[in-house]
Amino acid sequence: MLGHQQPVFAAISALICLAPGIPSQIRQGLGLIVGVTVGILVGELALMIPADLAAVRMASATFVAMMIAAAFGVAPVVPIQAGASAMLVLLMGPQVAGLARFLDVLIGASTGLIVALVFLRERLKF
């Protein structure tokens, strides 16, 4: 879909939305999207830091992304995904982990939420 050779982030996102034991698949899916968005934005901004300071860039981007996401006061998935997304943008580059990851997460979260609506109606609480 969308020309992605290996849409691994879509599959992972669907699984995260359908994780057992969470109180709300809707909240989990929205948190996933928010966390990834924050992480990608912070990762993209961190690319402005010179490559000579790669370790500092990685550590500070991950920390800042997680702190911004944690400030929303929502589920743990948000800061976790923010930190992971910032790292992926810096490690894999924005072409692979920026917009491509965001689109995969949208598709995966949407798929997970549709499956939850069809099969887990009683568990869908916002």
UniProtKB/TrEMBL annotation:
It is found in: Membrane. The keyword Membrane applies. InterPro entries: Memb_transporter_dom. It is a multi-pass membrane protein. Its main location: membrane. Residues 2-115 form the Integral membrane bound transporter domain. Keywords: Membrane, Transmembrane, Transmembrane helix. Pfam families: FUSC_2. The chain crosses the membrane at residues 33-51, 63-93, 99-120. This is Aromatic acid exporter family protein.
